[in-house]
Amino acid sequence: MNPDVMMMAEPVMTTTTAMSPEMYLWSDILGGMGIVAALIMFLIMIFVPYLMKAYGLFVLNNKLGEKHAWLAWVPVINIYSFVKAAGKSGWWVLFLIIGFILFVIPGVVMYIYLCHCISKRVGRTGWTTAVLVFFNIVGFPQVAVEYQPEEKSNKDSVVEL
Description:
Elements: H1 21-64, H2 78-85, H3 91-102, H4 104-121, H5 126-134, H6 136-146
Helix pairs in contact: 1-2, 1-6, 3-4, 4-5, 5-6
């Protein structure tokens, strides 16, 4: 080969800096803290909305006089509490679950209908239904706190002569 044609690559000079053990330790600590912070944020994003909705269902079922209001705090089983707040029988839990598993649209329609039943049961309008459907995290606690059940007076039970 002709040495004039052959091109030589320029030598690349690399410098490596060795990390001290303290630097490795700090990088491990900071990485671990980042993972812990991400985990805490994830848990907050999951549990805070769940607790707000469960609180709303619990208070609402207590005010409506349902026997098992505490079921609102139990995951998955709180569907029963939701159905009872709408004033429907326990069979609606099965219908709602089947509606969501087999066909999403009927499940969504049943969920909207049950939210509408809750808003009618507490004497609210269709706007409350929209809040319960789209903003249920704040809707259920708001409806539960604002709802005041009508107390039966003794006048109705007294027979006047």
